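Objective 1.3, modelling of assemblies. Example input:
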Amino acid sequence: MGHLLTLKRRQNLIGWLFIVPASILIFVFYFYPIVRAALLSFQTGVGVSLNYAGLFNYQRLLSDTVLKASISNVFIFLIIQVPIMLTLALILASLLNDPNLRFRGFFRTCLFLPCATSLVSYAIVFRSLFALDGFVNYLLTALKIIERPINWTGNPWTARALIIIALTWRWTGYNMVFYLAGLQNIDRSIYEAALIDGAGGLTRFTRITVPLLRPIILLTSIMSTNGTLQLFDETMNLTNGGPANATLSISQYIYRLSFQYSPRFGYAAAISFVVFVMVAVLSLIQMRVGDVR
Amino acid sequence: MRKTFGLCLIVMLVVALSGIASAVEITVWCWDPLFNIYAMQEAAKIYAKINPDVTINIVETPWDDVQTKLTTAVMAGQLNTLPDILLMQDNALQKNVTNYPGIFYDLTDSGIDFTKFADFKVNHTVVDGRNYGVPFDNGAAITALRVDILEQAGYTIEDFTDITWSRFIEIGKDVLAKTGYPLLSAVSESPDHIMVCLQSAGSWMFDDKGNVFIANNEVLKETVEIYVELVKSGVLVQVADWEQYIGTINRGTVAGTINGCWIIGTIVAQPEQEGKWRITNIPRLDKAPNATNYSNQGGSSWMVLANSPNKDIAVDFLKHTFAGSVELYETILPSSGALATYLPAGDSDVYNEPHPFFGGQTIYADITEFAEKVPKITYGVYNYEARDAVAMAISQVLQGRDIESALREAEDTVSFLMGP
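Predicted structure (tokens):
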């Protein structure tokens, strides 16, 4: 009996040994900085002269109009872009999951390829594509879709549309891969049974694919929400938050407060905790709504 | 084979280490290979004759990175990651000195003669009466114009000299109607044009005490009105970013530009346009009480880090080069157009050379003359906050908001950011 316990113990010990290195790294590089940032968010001051001031920063951010503008920008992106992207990814995934489709691997690679590009470089390429005399305006005017070139970065809503187009291009393939992986786990026979029962393509998609992919859809929507709330590279490089802060993201505002303006690290840390809370709350809501068993 | 390779490595390492031990290395952070870095390299050559033991190690660091690295190093207390000398944008100098006390070396008693530099420029490097920077490049504002296009409309460069903005817009509309060319281009969302006009009348977004001065600033209101009229009349065309702005000049889609004189480096990059350009001073505001035809845009200064173990050598280096060598400025001017604010260099013959690209105009002598007349202003600690807020206000006004309320909101935003 004693011998068996030691074996179990030994196995436990080995198990612990496996997770210890990763855990240490996560604690040192994730949790410790989070705790330090939390402490920082209770300090106020400019530059190196920081003093503890309790909840002052959290009180201060309530009257920050730029912060409010950036939060509403991010929610505009979230509400419009994430559903478009996830629906598109789902449709593409189920199309590419068809075993009779030729060149499947090629199409999959093409759609996933945008994810392999650097965020900064693709944002810069998009900026030149959507310039006043850029390729997109040339194409649209040549095809007689628009009469005069659109000043994409010059108007608040076209600038936001530009960010949404760019984000969709960059991230649709990424989400599609998750759906493709999920589709592998759906038994073919379910589709065959449905086919025998006379279910059409749309019915199979809405009644089989979507319900069975629910956990994956939940995962991708949480990841996308998280990503959009922390949006930085695209707005920084494509529109630089303009025009008139119409595309300023929360992260870019944090960057400005820390590095471009007279630095207020305490206040910037407080704002980053607001983002943290928003991500947590939204994920919780999504899990409640999406995780119906 | 492997053994030999290893041995070679060890030998190389020993040589390298002993090299460091005997000589002093001064690390410099600066940007722009054709301008600042080039000037620094030439300075290093001159100093090598004075003190051969010192090597100057130039690390190309774009301005945004200089600011980010500086902030990170200071906030984290890792001062040994900083260089010995760095190049600082003038409009961020007071901010950094004020926010990071003790980080920059006080050059006031270093023996550098600051009276030999242009007055307005030195003013940007002084905080609480102490000098923190060795002034470098000149940002005196110029109007550069394509005389071949002006000629088609019946104007010359003289018609643009010593004029007001209302006259400028009047001629601009005429040129646009006759030739189809806008006179100017500017990056939308960039308040540079507003800043040039403000300084030309000796005004800024902060008052003498450092308080925000936007909503009730009549000079600012006038400059915003002018900018809106420039855009609405088509005399100024807005573009999305810096590359496109450069493109309008080099591809010849505009008849000119108004900017700091360093823009000459961009203009001369298009050889086909040789002989077609001239420069003159900038238009002055019509209503502002202290309006002049002179201003400044951009410019930077060399700073020494107080934590540097070799700060005395770094100061000595700057004293013998950027703050004492006419030869240095004579070398860098013709090849890079790096115009100095070091006044003794202005007497040099090189500065009176006619420039073929500008039809033989003695542009450097002209710009040196402009620089002497630039009104003095203090950028202040919250300059970047105010720039962004004013840029946003302009954008809103262009979309139809009234100037009063847009500037009121800008002032509130800056006040909030300056708040406790």
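Residues 221 and 403 of chain B are 7 Å apart (CA to CA).
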